[in-house]
Amino acid sequence: MDFLLYIAAGAGVGLAVGLTGVGGGSLMTPLLILFGFPYHVAIGTDLLYAAITKAGGVVAHRRQKSVQWSIVRHLALGSIPASLVTALLLKTIFTDAEQYQDLLTRSLGIMLMLTALVILFRRFLRQASDRPQGSIGLFFQEHATIVTTVSGIFLGIFVTLSSVGAGAFCAALLMTLYPRLPALHVVGTDIAHAVPLTLIAGLGHLLLLGNVDLILLVSLLVGSLPAIHLGTRLAARMPSHVLQPILAALLLGMGFKFAWL
After folding, report:
1. What are the tens digits of pLDDT across the range 184-239?
2. How many other CB atoms sit within 10 Å of the CB of residue 239?
3. Is 65 left (phi over 0), alpha (psi -120 to 50) or beta?
4. Contact by Cβ (8 Å): 53, 148
């Protein structure tokens, strides 16, 4: 019965991802915690879930030539080493998962709130990036390569700690730093970076920390992979401008709860 429940959960999250484009990590991790899984298991399992479910998107965007590989490399230059170091520090400093649960919880809360704000203000971010105001905005865009790598470090740390941020939050960074990048290329580049980052972070949780439930992972994938495809086909008929704010408000509330438990 539990296996069927997890398949249904994967299908529900996959359908939501297909309909709204909101990253699965921001939905799946809180759901697994609601099911009673420990924070570290929910986060570690969700990271590998994200890597596998996003992999097909990379293939599709590569065929459309909508991936800016140079940006992916600069992001990964910061994020991949940061993810590995974060997992190693968790392994070295703490003797068991309970000792770093508070760190994971607050990181999850912060990243859920940031993701919710990005979803709510995505249009404003795009408009603001087209017309950068002040010296800070201009500095970021003039030094986009360096800022991209530094942003990658931030993503590597917090994605490893929370499983959230490799999707919507990274896309917001790309929109801000590269205002001339077409929306399709923002999505393609974001996904192309998210796959190796979540894979490395997930393997760190699996091999170094033992935080992945493989049976849970398989059951979630069985439900979510066909549901994502179905949700994508239905997305054109659904009012995403209504669904996304509702999901954003939900994520904001959950983020506040986790950050201040």
Report:
1. 888 889 889 999 999 999 999 999 999 999 999 999 999 988 888 787 777 666 65
2. 8
3. left
4. no
